[in-house]
Amino acid sequence: MEIKIIGKGCFFCKQLREICDQLVVEMNLPDGRIVQVNDLEEMLSFGVVNPPALVVNGKLKMMGRVLVKSRIRRAIEEELAPERKDDPHDRP
Question: Structure pTM?
Answer without folding.
Answer: 0.82
